[in-house]
Amino acid sequence: MHPPLTLHRHPMCAEIIEEFQKCHLDHPVAKFFGECTELKIKLDRCFRQEKAVKRKANFEESKKLKERLQVLRKESAEK
User: Fold this and answer.
1) Does residue 17 contact residue 7 with C-beta atoms inside 8 Å?
2) Could you read off the pLDDT of 9-31 as tens digits, one per residue?
3) Helices 37-78 & 14-26 angle (0-180, nearest 10)
């Protein structure tokens, strides 16, 4: 299963999403027998890469916020 295939939410995977959707339109019955499986695998890999990039960015942001919070706590403890 994959998340909703909206292009604006997955800009890194937009090309693969379009190919996958086209495959499903071009092969309405064959899609159930593995016609689009290769694209599905590519799509899953792309989503994993996209998630890893987002996770790393969120972690970096989290570290910055924790540092700011520690500085604020230290300042308020000194007062």
Assistant:
1) yes
2) 889 999 999 999 999 999 999 98
3) 150
